[in-house]
Specification:
By secondary structure, this protein is α+β, with helices and mostly antiparallel strands. Helices cover 61% and strands 13% of the residues. Mean pLDDT is 72; it is low at 1-15 and 41-49.
């Protein structure tokens, strides 16, 4: 079976590459090669153990947190700077989406949500009473 290193640049450029992520840290690359006619009917399978390269390309947890925090701050800044008209439009859009979602939910889902809401309200009231007493 030919290896990716053994292919010429010309063959690599003409071939279509399909990469599949497989559990167990394995990367499978399927390439149709015009010069290779094997048991897979022109498809050759290369199993690459390029886990180190994959790890280098992966985003670290810290980088992800920073990226998400930046996006959150950007959204908050955008909301803080929007006009009253845009704010009303945005809130109305959210209300309509919630209403549509509740309209489409089943009776069981609605009952569960209402039970959860009432439990949350009772717990909130108890907490407020404790705060007032102390």
């Amino acid at each position: 079976m030919p290896t990716p290193e053994g292919e010429s640049k010309k063959d690599t450029q003409r071939s279509l590459t399909l990469r599949l992520r497989v559990p167990g840290r394995t990367l499978i690359v399927l390439k149709p090669l015009s010069l290779y006619n094997g048991p897979l009917g022109g498809w050759t399978v290369f199993v690459l153990y390029s886990w180190e390269q994959h790890e280098q390309e992966k985003e670290t947890i810290t980088q992800r947190k920073r990226r998400l925090e930046k996006a959150k701050l950007k959204r908050q800044e955008k909301i803080a700077n929007e006009s009253d008209v845009h704010k009303r439009q945005r809130l109305e859009k959210i209300r309509l989406a919630v209403a549509k979602h509740r309209e489409n939910e089943s009776l069981e889902q609605r009952t569960n949500r209402q039970d959860t809401d009432s439990t949350y309200t009772r717990e909130k009231e108890k907490l407020e009473l404790k705060i007032l007493k102390s």
